[in-house]
Structure formats: structure tokens, C-alpha cells
Design goal:
151 residues; alpha+beta; 2 domains; two-stranded antiparallel sheet
């Protein structure tokens, strides 16, 4: 599904919740407050344990980096920190450039850094493995026996 369809589904879910569920909740509360309160607690429990399954309908994936959400107040400092980390990683192919919560890089940013280092230095470490670029552009690692294993 595209991002537009996720946004559309999220908007429809909110619209259904406001137009149908909210009036039913209010009517139910008028006729039977204890039942409505019990239902609210039950619905909150379901919401809490199923949020991971459907949060992608409401949260834009470009705002997430390895389960670390960049909130709107911290976008500028995070961007500056990512630029510093990027410059540091581009200058040294022996540092692991895998994206983690600690370095705040997105997966796309870390892959881009990895390929830039392969093109510049002919080698780059990613996810604990030193990868090399051959003369014709093939990417390989050395096995324990010293043979090349192309990826």
C-alpha cells in the first residue's frame, strides 16, 4: 500500500470513530454508566496491546528511525547531530555505519553512507562485516578461509 492509502485509511478510521462510535458511547453512558466504563477500560486495554499492529496508519514512516520518533521540537538538533555523524562515518571506512538508536541514522542514510564509502575507499564496514568493492563493482566479504564471498 502506498503512503496515501495509509493516510486515507487512517482518516476514515478517525471519521468512523467520531461519527459512529462517539455517539454510541455517549448514549450507552446515559443508559448504563457502569457498563460503559467497563467497556472503556476493555477498549483501552485492546488499544494498548494492538497499537503496534496499526500505528502505521496514523504515524508517517518518514518521522521514524529505528523505533525512535523524531518529535517536532527536536528536529533541528537531531538533524545537526546526524550531519556530524555522517561526516565522521564518511571519513573512516573502518567504523560500523549500521543504523542504531544511538546514532539516530535512518536505514536509508546508513546504506547511502555505506555505498559512498565503498566507492571512495573500496571498503566499508556495515553490520559488523567489512565489505569490499571489486574492480568491476562487485561487493564481497572475505570468508574465514580467505576466499571472496560476493553479495
Amino acid at each position: 500500500m502506498s503512503d496515501e492509502s495509509f493516510t486515507t485509511v487512517g482518516c476514515l478510521a478517525v471519521l468512523i470513530a467520531v461519527v459512529i462510535v462517539l455517539p454510541l458511547f455517549l448514549v450507552g453512558f446515559i443508559y448504563s454508566p457502569p457498563t460503559t466504563i467497563a467497556f472503556t477500560i476493555f477498549a483501552a486495554a485492546i488499544f494498548r496491546y494492538t497499537w503496534q499492529d496499526w500505528k502505521h496508519f496514523f504515524i508517517d514512516s518518514s518521522e521514524q528511525s529505528n523505533n525512535y520518533t523524531r518529535n517536532s521540537k527536536a528536529i533541528t538538533p537531531v538533524r545537526e547531530e546526524v550531519e556530524v555523524i555522517t561526516r565522521m562515518l564518511l571519513g573512516n571506512p573502518d567504523l560500523d555505519c549500521k543504523s542504531t538508536k544511538g546514532n539516530k541514522l535512518t536505514i536509508k542514510e546508513s546504506i547511502d553512507i555505506h555505498y559512498k564509502r565503498l566507492n571512495k575507499y573500496g571498503r566499508s564496514e556495515y553490520d559488523g562485516d567489512m565489505e569490499y568493492m571489486g574492480p568491476r563493482g562487485g561487493i564481497y566479504v572475505y570468508t574465514a578461509r580467505g576466499n571472496r564471498s560476493y553479495r
